[in-house]
Amino acid sequence: TALLPAVALGQATTSKYEAKLSGANEVPAVTTTATGTFTATLDEAAGTRPPRLSVPAITSTTAAPIHTGAAGANGGVVVSLFAAPTGAPASSINVSGTARAADLAGSMAGNFPGFVAALKAGTLYVNVHTSANAGGEIRAQVLAAAAAPAAAPAKTGTGGPDAAATESGSGGFAVIGLIAVAVVAAGGARLLTARKR
Questions:
Q1: pLDDT tens track for 10-45
Q2: Fewer CB atoms near the end CB (10 Å): N or C, the chain?
Q3: Is 120 helix (H, G, I), strand (E, B) or coil?
Q4: Rounded to 5 degrees, what are φ and ψ at 190?
C-alpha cells in the first residue's frame, strides 16, 4: 500500500524515501568522517524514482549503488547511482536524475514490483565505495520519510474570549510530485541511471 493516498487530488501514488549514510552503518563498521544523504520520490504509476545522492567530502570515491539487503546484511547491486571515471576517483558526490524500471540490475533486473516491495520493506540500502574501502565506506538503509502532518482544521465561530468556537473542516494530504532534475556530478563523475535513447 502507498504511504500517501492515491485519491488525494486524483494524483498518482507517490512516496518519498531517504537515507543518512555513515561508516557506522557499514557491515562491518568503518571509521570515517564522511557522511552523506540520499532521497528519492517513488512514482509507482510512472515506474520512476528520481534519486539524489550528496556526499560533501569523502576520499577517493569509486562508486555509489543501491544494494538489496536488510540492515546488518550485505547484498548485491540493483541500481547504480554513481561511478567515477576509471582511474579518477572523486572527492565528493552530488548526483541527481530520474531512474526508471529499465535501470534495475542484478537480482531486480526487470522486476520493478519486486524493487517497490523491497523499498517499502526497508530492505534496500545505499552504499558508497572508496579506494580504501572497496566494500563500502558509508551506508544507510533507504526508509520511508516521515509523513507531513495533516493540515489543521479550519475554525469557525463567533470569536471572543467567552464564545465557544466550533471547528470544522477536513485534514489535508501531503502529495509529493514527481520531480525530474538534471544530472549534476562533482569531480567528473557521471550518473549511470540516465535513460539511453
A1: 344 789 999 999 999 999 999 999 999 999 999 888
A2: C
A3: helix
A4: -135, 150
